[in-house]
């Protein structure tokens, strides 16, 4: 211990503090040293409390006050694990042990708890399950927290200590306000004393590090209740105690760090808004004493652990403290010159500098200070690592601390440049800015994805800024920015090309029906990185396309020569080449792309082995697919590329056929007109030639690849511009000839023997044909109507046959028909999907809404809707609901006469299933719930919903039960309510019957702890409904006057109903808390934002007892 840590220098921060400083001497004398120096009545009260503390637990009532004895006072023969295993009653013994622990009338046996905890944590103990049950029951006991001090003092099992602390922590978070004041004081003193006792002993603090951290968190939970109102001296007390010992000071810094995090980072959904505001103001007002303590520690301490934790604590403060503490003190220079220079504290100091350097949107007077900071930092950094150093190698060979240093270096430069790039562009600091950019380039080269993503943000900002300046040159600019930073930008382009992220991958998977299908894996991080890198490289190419071209061609030459050959290097290079499509001029792009394709084709011929050739081939296909402008301008090259793709479609190497089909689709989308119009030196449009050889091209493709091929051709046929002279309907029939012939053959076999239609191979064939038709319909558009007419009724008949066969499969015992059952359901779903896609794409002239309503809708309702209505709940397809939702939206008024029948079929079949579900936690939300979009929302004129349907059934199912469907259901409900309001003739009847129950259901979902999503929409709905009542839009009385209810208005009734409902459901809130909350809800001046804050505060208060009317019950409105 150095001389500076003396009592003379470490005095309390305030001369008026009633608490003397703490020392090891205090700890030895009292377990509650922060109150050891009181006098008078308060001292007597505290002494009395301390005298009983180790034996009398803190409990709310005399009956529950339980004597907690140490092991020396425990029974002579405590229950042990071995004693539970008797010959006759193993269950009886452990239950007796549990009963003793849970009894409030018997002494609490800590030794027994140790044994039960040991059994619960032992994977081989036969009593483990029952021991766990006992611990759960003990934790849920309303008086369990009264045993916490005995457990913490006398338990020998480390897990028992954590269990006891958890009991105490739960009581502090939920019951603090109902615990008597003297016992709250006792808890506070005990926790503080325990913390000081452990943290003052270096060896014990190290051995019990995790337990001490939990104690610190418990103290912070107490502070959230007590400080500053009931514990105004906390900060002075903490600062004062820190001056007695470096060990104490180290732990106190951790407490301050936790307090800052709890208030500024994690307060949302944990504390009410006013409390958070109060804590922030208090911490800000008393920060001067905290800062002085940090400053003194940083100046005088030689203890590395204390210095590091002080820097970590300071870093948490830097996000919110006044700027004067940063720039009007020696903090910055101290961090750089003293702690950044020292390897022991370097990373923590750099973490502080990251926070300071990332501060933005500050007044201009701070610009010189940031420039000074940047210059000082670079000077000190140059002594640690030079800008030209090989950081990649240093990172690879370094320790964990070195890796952290490089990561934080990336954070510093990226944050500083993004926030202060223009500030550094001055004559005095322009060279330093280039040095900083050079450092960032070196850091970007490190082989670490997270570090590169950090750097990428800065490079994107820089490239965008320079590009905008090039587009709009600044007045008086003597030299273009791209020239000033040319050396840096060249290195950035190289890094971007070498590290280019890959676009989305396509995987081939087997679906539930055993079919191979395409599944797109969306790695959101990689996709976001690719998009950001692509934009960055495009901007860099606009700044200097020649430099980008030279770098790419040089690297491609290295691939051809073999100097840098690898699959990864070729892939990233080709992804980079594809990403800059359109960034060069047309002539530059032509020259560049011809060279690239020539080299890649030569590389493909040069390489041996199918794997190597497949990699090169896939990259060729990817690159050509990215340059549609070049392909459109050069027909012969385009034709050559497409024919080459057709060749690749016969290559059986994994992935090549998929890549060929994907590239063909991409080219067909971007160059469709070139295939439909007659080109130079061609006798017919290319699509005619393609369709004549279609069976040959697709003969080696898998079913999912065939679907992609048909999708590409359908994209071509969608073009109906004035330049198109081919007969598109005829070409469509020709394209579908293969599938049409297969369908006709199947129908002929079914006509001779209907059982042939339900054979597994036949069902699979139907599914494949339907999938191809779905792809074609989605991409060819309304033209598909001319093809659907040729087999529409046959499809409906197949759907009907499959439905009957499904019923037969269900009747078979022992799941004998399960395989066929799945195949049949899959085929039915594809049929309905085809009708959905057709409806979505229907348009004039081939399929006008009126024609669809008259010719398409009636047979669909007779077959598909009737089948849905008559099917068992477990086999109804969600796609049917989606189909009719699309029909309602697409056909508009043309479907209104059919709405009553649709509503009746849908809602009558859904009502039993919905009403069986317990609110608010349904056992399973199925897709068809989400499809109840419902016809009531989209039908134009709510009056049509009621026709032909029982009012009770329709209103009950449609709006009320939708609220269990998370965001989609809530949005539908909101839209439904707005539509109802537009029809005054039915609105009042709906409001009278269902408005109150809607409010109750929304509160049920909102207060259910297992359903936290959808809060914004829930609040919006409540705000909408309550304001309907407040503004007298609900004229019918919401209450039954015949039952003796006599209210002056609906507002008064709803206010009273809500208050009674919440008071009975949540007695822990107290009557005043409920009344205040309901009053605030009915404040007519409250906007939606304030309404959400009010609701959020209410949800926070639900987690604890109010202290007004304490009750051990913990009701949940969802249980009503």
Describe the structure.
With 1120 residues, the protein is mostly helical. Among the domains are: 200 residues, Alpha Horseshoe (Leucine-rich Repeat Variant); 151 residues, Leucine-rich Repeat Variant, CATH 1.25.10.10. Helices cover 67% and strands 1% of the residues. A two-stranded antiparallel sheet has the order 1-2. Helix 13 packs parallel to helix 16 and helix 43 runs parallel beside helix 45. It is globular, with a radius of gyration of 37 Å. The two termini are 63 Å apart. 40% of the residues are buried. The N terminus and C terminus are likely disordered.
Quote the beta fraction.
Answer: under 5%
Classified in CATH, the superfamily of one domain is Leucine-rich Repeat Variant
Report the strand count.
2
Strand order of the largest sheet: 1-2
C-alpha geometry: globular
Structure class: mainly alpha
- Runs in which pLDDT lies below 50 for 5 or more consecutive residues are 1-92, 911-964, 1109-1120
User: What's the architecture of one domain in CATH terms?
Assistant: Alpha Horseshoe
CATH topology of one domain: Leucine-rich Repeat Variant
Helical run tally: 57
Q: How would you state the average pLDDT, rounded?
A: 82
Helix content: 55-70%
Indicate the CATH class of one domain.
Answer: Mainly Alpha
The Cα radius of gyration reads 37 Å
Distance between the termini: 63 Å
């Amino acid at each position: 211990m150095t001389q500076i840590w003396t009592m003379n220098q470490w005095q309390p921060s305030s001369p008026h503090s009633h608490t003397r400083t703490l020392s090891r001497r205090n700890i030895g004398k009292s377990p509650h040293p922060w109150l050891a120096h009181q006098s008078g009545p308060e001292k007597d009260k505290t002494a009395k409390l301390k005298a009983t503390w180790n034996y009398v637990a803190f409990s709310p009532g005399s009956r529950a006050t339980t004597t907690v004895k140490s092991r020396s006072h425990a029974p002579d023969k405590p229950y042990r694990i071995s004693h539970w295993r008797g010959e006759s009653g193993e269950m009886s013994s452990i239950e007796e042990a549990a009963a003793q622990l849970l009894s409030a009338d018997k002494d609490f046996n800590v030794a027994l708890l140790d044994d039960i905890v040991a059994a619960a944590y032992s994977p081989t103990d036969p009593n483990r399950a029952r021991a766990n049950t006992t611990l759960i029951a003990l934790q849920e006991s309303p008086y369990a927290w009264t045993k916490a001090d005995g457990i913490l003092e006398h338990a020998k099992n480390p897990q028992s200590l954590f269990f006891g602390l958890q009991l105490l922590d739960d009581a502090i978070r939920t019951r603090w306000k109902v615990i008597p004041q003297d016992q709250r004081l006792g808890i506070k003193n005990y926790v503080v004393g325990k913390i000081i006792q452990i943290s003052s002993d270096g060896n014990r603090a190290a051995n019990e590090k995790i337990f001490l951290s939990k104690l610190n968190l418990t103290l912070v939970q107490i502070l959230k209740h007590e400080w500053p109102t009931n514990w105004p001296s906390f900060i002075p007390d903490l600062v004062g105690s820190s001056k007695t010992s470096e060990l104490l000071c180290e732990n106190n810094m951790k407490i301050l760090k936790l307090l800052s995090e709890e208030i500024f980072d994690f307060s949302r959904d944990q504390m009410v808004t006013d409390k958070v505001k109060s804590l922030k103001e208090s911490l800000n007002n008393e920060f001067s004493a905290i800062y002085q303590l940090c400053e003194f520690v940083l100046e005088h301490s030689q203890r590395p652990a204390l210095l590091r934790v002080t820097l970590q604590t300071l870093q948490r403060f830097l996000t919110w403290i006044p700027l004067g503490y940063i720039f009007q003190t020696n903090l910055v220079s101290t961090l750089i010159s003293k702690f950044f220079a020292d390897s022991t504290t370097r990373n923590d100091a750099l973490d502080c500098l990251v926070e300071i350097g990332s501060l933005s949107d500050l007044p201009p007077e701070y610009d010189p200070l940031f420039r000074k900071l940047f210059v000082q930092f670079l000077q000190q950094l140059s002594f640690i690592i030079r800008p030209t150093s090989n950081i990649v190698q240093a990172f690879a060979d370094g320790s964990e601390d070195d890796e952290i240093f490089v990561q934080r270096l990336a954070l510093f430069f990226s944050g500083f440049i993004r926030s202060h790039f223009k500030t550094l562009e001055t004559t005095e600091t322009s060279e330093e800015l280039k040095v900083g950019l050079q450092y960032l380039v070196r850091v970007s080269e490190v082989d670490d994805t997270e570090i590169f993503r950090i750097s990428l943000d800065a490079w994107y900002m820089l490239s965008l800024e320079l590009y905008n300046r090039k587009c709009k040159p600044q007045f008086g600019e003597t030299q273009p920015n791209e020239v000033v930073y040319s050396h840096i930008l060249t290195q950035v382009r190289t890094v971007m090309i070498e590290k280019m992220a890959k676009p989305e991958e396509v995987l081939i998977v087997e679906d539930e029906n055993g079919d191979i299908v395409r599944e797109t894996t969306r790695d959101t991080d990689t996709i976001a990185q690719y998009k950001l890198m692509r934009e960055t490289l495009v901007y860099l190419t606009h700044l200097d396309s020649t430099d980008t071209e030279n770098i790419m061609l040089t690297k491609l030459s290295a691939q051809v020569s073999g100097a840098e050959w690898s699959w990864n290097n070729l892939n990233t290079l080709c992804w980079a080449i594809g990403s800059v499509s359109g960034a060069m001029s047309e002539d530059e792009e032509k020259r560049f792309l011809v060279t690239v394709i020539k080299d890649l084709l030569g590389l493909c011929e040069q390489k041996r082995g199918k794997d190597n050739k497949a990699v090169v081939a896939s990259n060729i296909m990817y690159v050509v697919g990215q340059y549609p402008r070049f392909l459109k301008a050069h027909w012969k090259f385009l034709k050559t590329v497409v024919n080459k793709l057709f060749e690749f479609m016969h290559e059986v190497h994994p992935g090549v056929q998929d890549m060929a089909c994907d590239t063909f689709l991409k080219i067909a989308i971007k160059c469709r007109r070139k295939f439909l119009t007659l080109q130079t030196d061609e006798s017919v449009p290319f699509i005619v030639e393609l369709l004549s050889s279609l069976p040959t091209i697709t003969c080696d493709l898998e079913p999912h690849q065939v679907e992609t091929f048909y999708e590409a051709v359908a994209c071509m046929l969608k073009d109906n511009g004035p330049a198109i002279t081919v007969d598109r309907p005829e070409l469509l029939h020709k394209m579908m000839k293969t599938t049409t012939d297969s369908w006709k053959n199947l129908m002929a076999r079914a006509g001779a023997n209907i059982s042939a239609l339900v054979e597994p191979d036949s069902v699979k064939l139907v599914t494949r044909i339907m999938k191809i038709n779905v792809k074609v319909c989605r991409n060819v558009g309304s033209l598909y109507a001319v093809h659907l007419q040729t087999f529409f009724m046959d499809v409906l008949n197949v759907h009907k046959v499959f439905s009957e066969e499904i019923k037969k499969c269900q009747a078979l015992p022992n799941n004998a028909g399960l395989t066929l059952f799945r195949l049949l359901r899959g085929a039915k779903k594809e049929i309905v999907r085809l009708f959905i896609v057709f409806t979505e794409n229907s348009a004039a002239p081939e399929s006008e809404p009126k024609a669809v309503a008259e010719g398409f809708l009636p047979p669909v309702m007779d077959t598909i809707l009737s089948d849905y209505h008559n099917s068992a709940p477990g086999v109804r397809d969600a796609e049917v609901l989606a189909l009719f939702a699309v029909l309602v939206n697409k056909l508009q008024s043309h479907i209104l006469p059919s709405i009553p029948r649709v509503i009746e079929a849908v809602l009558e079949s859904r009502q039993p299933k919905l009403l069986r579900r317990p609110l608010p936690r349904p056992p399973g939300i199925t897709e068809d719930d989400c499809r109840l979009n419902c016809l009531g929302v989209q039908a134009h004129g709510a009056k049509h919903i009621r026709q032909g349907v029982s009012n009770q059934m329709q209103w009950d199912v449609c709006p009320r039960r939708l609220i269990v469907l998370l965001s989609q259901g809530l949005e539908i409900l909101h839209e439904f309510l707005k539509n109802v309001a537009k029809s005054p003739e039915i609105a009042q009847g709906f409001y009278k019957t269902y408005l109150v129950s809607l409010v109750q259901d929304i509160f049920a979902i909102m207060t259910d702890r297992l359903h936290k999503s959808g809060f914004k929409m829930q609040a919006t709905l409540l705000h909408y409904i309550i304001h309907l009542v407040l503004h007298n839009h609900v004229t019918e009385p919401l209450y039954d006057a015949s039952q003796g209810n006599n209210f002056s208005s609906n507002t008064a009734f709803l206010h009273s109903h809500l208050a009674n409902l919440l008071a009975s459901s949540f007695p822990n809130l107290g009557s005043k808390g409920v009344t205040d909350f309901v009053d605030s809800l009915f404040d007519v001046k409250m906007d939606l934002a304030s309404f959400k804050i009010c609701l959020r505060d209410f949800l926070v208060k639900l987690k604890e007892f109010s202290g007004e009317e304490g009750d051990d019950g913990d009701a949940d409105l969802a249980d009503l």
